[in-house]
Write a structure and sequence with these properties.
Elements lengths: L1 H15 L2 H10 L21 E6 L18 H8 L2 E7 L4 H10 L32 H6 L4 E8 L23 E6 L10 E3 L2 E3 L8 H19 L5 E6 L11 H5 L9 H14 L24 H34 L6 E7 L16 H6 L5 H6 L15 H7 L13 H4 E7 L8 E3 L3 E2 L3 H8 L7 E2 L2 E2 L10 H4 L9 E6 L2 E6 L2 E5 L22 E5 L15 H17 L11 H11 L5 E5 L3 E4 L11 E19 L2 E8 L2 E7 L7 E5 L10 E9 L8 E7 L2 E8 L12 E4 L18 E11 L9
Parallel strand pairs: 1-7, 1-8, 2-10, 2-11, 3-4, 3-7
Antiparallel strand pairs: 2-9, 4-5, 5-6, 8-9, 12-13, 14-15, 15-16, 16-17, 18-28, 19-27, 20-21, 20-24, 20-27, 20-28, 21-22, 22-23, 24-25, 25-26
Helix pairs in contact: 3-9, 6-9, 8-12
Organism: Sphingobium xenophagum
Pfam family, one: Sulfatase
Keywords: Calcium, Hydrolase, Metal-binding, Signal
Length: 769
């Protein structure tokens, strides 16, 4: 007690002293009574650069003007003018695996990401769960004195854990002090499903389109970082969703390209190759691979289809060009702030080849048209004027995908061919890189991890956070910075994606021939086993773009390379090679890791639950019961106008909306003729009596008030998949893309919403009365 009183008296005396006297007393300390030893704070190596790592989405080698493509990307070209352009850089042919490799420096199967997290399996190379034995570049830099931030797409959360994922799998648990972006393969550009530091952003006021929001946030973060710690380097990972479907852009940017694609996909391909050869991006004499037999020729299309496909290409171009402009804003701000010279910028144009999954016809609801109902050409034509805007989620036809892969064969998913794995890359660092120009060293996404660490004066840790680290598979590319003609240090690299395989060794590439079309991922019957694939052989030293199969000429060499692939597959957990993409595989991880139950209870309003943690009301009967007082708005909603359910109170009356596709005739509405009694609590029920017989079947929709049926209606076909699949199941609002178009803010339930209960019937079976 005396000691406490003495301390209190000392504080009182101190507070009575003039402030200047306190400061002088504290600073002077002539007796040396204040200890001066503090725990060490991580410090980055002297002169370590700021780092900006940019990764765009689904952009093929031949799309951007920086690589000879038809879409002007002046800011990427400006970056390349003071940097290095790599024309033999490779990805994995799909987004989750490429991102896992880029962040960890390890081959994708070695870190459990041999395919999309949406297609995870219970095998070591395919769990979708990145191990702690392979920490990310963000974590290594953070622990070595960098501030770290992540903007944009994060598609490395295990399937089934999206709603309850430990921080280990979210950016804030992977070394990034700040995260603003979306989780999953894609999101709507106009009404995105966003998270900030793990918390859902549900503000539905009008906002700029997503790419602009990401750039705004990145610039603001850099300003704040420099204000707080100007002597500390930063690492920004900037991964916009462009140009993954949905292709959406401001109307004025789409209008810039009106008529620019009227000549068709074959002509665009020829024009791109001419530019690539003229700029030295590909060798002289390079010829285009043959047009794929399952893609239509432009001249064969009817006029309405040409108009539709033109608008789809114009929108893709508008989105990519707009994304380049947003990157340009960040670049300009680094220059204005005097940070540009000592900022190492790596810009990877695409995490894989261009996307052909929309089929030769294209799509207006990517997942919905794969799983719920394919729209006819004629239905597409009726919605042509909506492409690029907020009412559809368009993706161009597969003919455009092949054109955007120029000069290579095939596209995204096809890891056996360069159209799926060859992407353009630019590296610029004015303080260090002085010899600008083309670099043709063979490189891969795994090489960026050691390259960035070496540039910062760091090495990969042997242990991190108490866990021994597995070997880094990447090779430091800084050997290519000063000597453009130095030989490639990477001599072997394997590829595997959904059964498509390849092995590169000493300039040769052995590759399987594709059996599954990307647009058949969900619909195709059966499963092709790995041994049924035929192999081809290419001499990439003489055949830059993989056009001449030499398997019959050199069978012994092919046999050797196939053995090398088998060895690499065993080393990196590639087995079992599996090309399944059906619902059985896509749901296996969600069933194994998630906890499906028969009854879900939600207390209160304003909740957003990721789909894998939400009640799976598709393909089965269900009831949604709400205890509520007077109010208006959404009680519960799943998905969007592209494929979804909405249960609401409208003008005092319960209502159900079900949208199968964006076609207006596919919107089902059931409205109660009986209104709720104003000012009184009520129990409102919505039931779907399912016909059974599998997924996507019909049934009877019923509405009850306090247990009494007040309305029923027949729904002939229900969604088997909510679209977009990054949309959530919402209570008391309809966030992101709505099921029913309404003014901003109007979907929020305004009133008392005490409890919502969802009860499920058996999956795929008959239910109800």
């Amino acid at each position: 007690m005396l000691k406490f009183l003495s301390s209190t008296a000392a504080i009182a005396v101190s507070l009575a002293m003039p402030l200047c006297a306190q400061v002088q007393s504290a600073n002077a300390d002539p007796a040396g009574t204040i200890p001066s030893s503090y725990p060490a704070v991580p410090q980055a190596p002297k002169a370590a650069p700021n780092i900006l790592l940019v990764l765009t989405d689904d952009v093929g080698f031949g799309a951007a003007s920086a690589f000879g493509g038809p879409v002007p990307t002046p800011n990427l070209e400006r970056l390349a003018a003071k940097g290095l352009t790599y024309n033999r850089f490779h990805t994995t042919a799909m987004c989750s695996p490429t991102r896992a490799s880029l962040l960890t420096g390890r081959n994708s199967h070695a870190v459990g990401t041999g395919a999309l997290t949406d297609l995870a399996m219970g095998a070591p190379g395919y769990t979708g769960m990145m191990p702690k034995s392979a920490v990310t570049i963000g974590e290594v830099l953070r622990q070595n004195g960098y501030n770290t931030a992540f903007f944009g797409k994060h598609h490395n959360v295990p399937k089934g854990l999206e709603g309850s994922s430990p921080q280990d799998y979210l950016p804030n648990g992977m070394g990034f002090e700040y995260f603003f972006g979306f989780v999953g393969s894609s999101t709507d550009q106009w009404r995105p499903t966003l998270y900030r530091n793990g918390v859902r952003v549900t503000d539905d006021r009008p906002q700029p389109i997503l790419d602009q929001r990401l750039a705004d946030d990145a610039i603001a973060w850099i300003h704040q970082q420099q204000a707080n710690a100007p002597d500390k380097p930063f690492f920004v990972y900037y991964a916009p969703g462009s140009a993954h479907a949905p292709h959406q852009a401001p109307s004025e940017w789409i209008a810039r390209f009106r008529g620019r694609f009227a000549q068709g996909w074959e002509a665009i391909r020829e024009e791109t190759l001419t530019r690539q050869i003229a700029r030295g991006l590909v060798p002289k004499g390079t010829k285009l691979p043959e047009w794929l037999a399952d893609l239509p020729r432009w001249a064969s299309l009817p006029p309405q289809e040409k108009q539709y496909q033109e608008r789809a290409a114009e929108t893709f171009a508008g989105e990519l060009a707009f994304q380049d402009a947003q990157f340009g804003r960040i670049l300009a701000e680094l220059e204005r702030m005097g940070l540009r010279d000592n900022t190492l910028i790596v810009f990877i144009e695409g995490d894989n080849g261009p996307d052909a999954a929309a089929s030769p016809n294209g799509s207006l609801a990517e997942a919905g048209e794969l799983a719920n109902r394919r729209l006819s050409r004629e239905e597409h034509w009726t919605l042509t004027d909506r492409i690029g805007g907020p009412l559809v989620n368009s993706n161009y036809g597969s003919g455009w995908a092949l054109a955007m892969a120029t000069p290579f064969p095939f596209y995204k998913q096809i890891a056996s061919h360069l159209g799926g794995t060859r992407n353009g890359m630019v590296i610029s660092w004015p303080d260090r890189i002085k010899d600008y120009g083309l670099r043709s060293q063979y490189s891969h996404a795994i090489d960026l991890f050691p390259t960035l660490l070496a540039s910062a004066g760091l090495q990969a840790p042997e242990s991190a956070n108490g866990v021994a680290q597995q070997p880094v598979d990447g090779i430091d590319l800084s050997y290519s910075f000063a000597q453009g003609d130095s030989p490639s240090q990477r001599t072997v690299q394997y590829y595997e994606m959904l059964g498509n395989r390849a092995i590169f060794k000493d300039g040769w590439l052995a590759a399987t021939l594709p059996q599954v079309k990307p647009w058949e991922m969900v619909s195709r019957p059966g499963v092709n086993l790995a041994p049924t694939y035929q192999w081809a052989l290419y001499d990439l030293g003489k055949d830059f773009n993989q056009t001449r199969d030499l398997a019959r000429k050199y069978p012994e060499r092919l046999a050797v390379l196939k053995q090398v692939f088998a060895e690499q597959a065993a080393l990196y957990n590639v087995n079992p090679v599996n090309d399944r993409t059906d619902p059985v595989r896509s749901n296996s991880a969600a069933r194994a890791l998630g906890k499906t139950r028969d009854r879900y209870e939600y207390w209160g309003s304003g909740l957003s639950i990721p789909l894998d943690a939400a009640p799976p009301i598709t393909g089965r009967g269900f009831t949604v019961t709400a205890k509520l007082g007077a109010g208006e708005g959404t009680i519960a909603a799943l998905g969007s106008r592209l494929g979804g359910w909405r249960f609401a109170i409208e003008n005092g009356r319960p209502a159900v909306h079900h949208s199968l596709t964006p076609v207006p005739d596919d919107l089902f509405t059931l409205l109660s003729p009986v209104a709720l009694t104003p000012g009184q609590m009520a129990e409102v029920g919505f039931a779907f009596d399912y016909d059974g017989g599998g997924y996507g079947k019909g049934g009877t929709v019923r509405i009850t008030i306090d247990g009494k049926e007040v309305a029923n209606g027949r729904l002939e076909r229900s969604i088997s998949y909510a679209d977009p699949h990054t949309e959530s199941f919402d209570i008391g609002l309809d966030s992101g893309v709505p099921v029913l178009e309404a003014p901003p803010g109007s979907s929020v339930f305004k009133g008392s919403l005490d409890k919502v209960t969802v009860a499920l019937g058996p999956a795929g079976q008959k239910s109800g009365r």
